[in-house]
Amino acid sequence: MSNRRNKRKNGATENPTDAVPAPRKDLIDALSRIYHDPKYKDLTILCSDQVFSVHKCIVCTQSAFFAKACDGEFQQEASTGQVVLHEDPALVRGMIEYLYTSDYRMVTLSLTPNGHTSSNTPLPDASEADDIVADEHALCQQLQGEEAKDSASQLGDAKEYPQAAVDPLSFHILMYSLADRMFIEGLKDQSSRKAEQELNQQLIEKVDQCLLPRAIVEIYSSTPAGVRGLRDIAVRVTMARLAKLNRMGCSGLGEILKNGLLDPVPQFCFDLLVAIMDNNS
């Protein structure tokens, strides 16, 4: 007993395993249980052909979008108790899971017949998207030969996203974009951390010189200019790896940044230049 008192006086902490379970974990476990219980659910989210029943007290307190919908600012939604979302159901399911558990799991995206998820985020116009596709495809052919053609074709139009079933990074990027539209700050933080971790992991594990350019194009085409989270990650990862990329073969990957990204995604060029200047100042 005296040893324990001395440890406390000296500022030492006890072993976390000796402590009782954190109340926050108990609360999250309880919320997870009621998510699967239809009792007391008082709001319906309609998304494509799927229906999600939720509790207003859970979703409205974490999302300004749902709060406005239920507080009467959206007349139809307030009167019917139903909110219609033109989003991918898999992303909506993940969003709801986060609201109840503070985390989400990656599931397969249900792509539309056009091959992309629904999104309200402004994207590049058709001509700009074509430029992105052309530059990306040419770069992959130059650096990786015939094997890169399949990789580049998966990018397709900048308005089309790869399926999350084969690309976890895309899923986290799209989840961040959805969280921004739904005004869920916690989910934005969670998805941005997952996106950065996945991007760094893929750069270590995959020998794909088009990986980083594709990720940057997707990040900048799925987020508004004023939303910095993922864009700052793209710049930070590029800065950290720029020297290494330039030391790799294929006539220098500085050409990738110049031709494949800086022209079709000029905002990335500006952001990267500012970061380089700040780093050298």
TrEMBL record:
One family name in Pfam for this protein: BTB
Stored SUPFAM superfamilies: POZ domain
CDD domains xrefs: BTB_POZ_ZBTB_KLHL-like (cd18186)
Entry-linked InterPro entries: BTB/POZ_dom (IPR000210), SKP1/BTB/POZ_sf (IPR011333)
Organism whose genome encodes this protein: Penicillium salamii
Location of the region described as Disordered in the Swiss-Prot/TrEMBL record: 1-23
Stretches with biased composition (Basic residues): 1-10
Official protein name in the record: BTB domain-containing protein
Domain annotation BTB: ranges: 41-108
Domain of life: Eukaryota
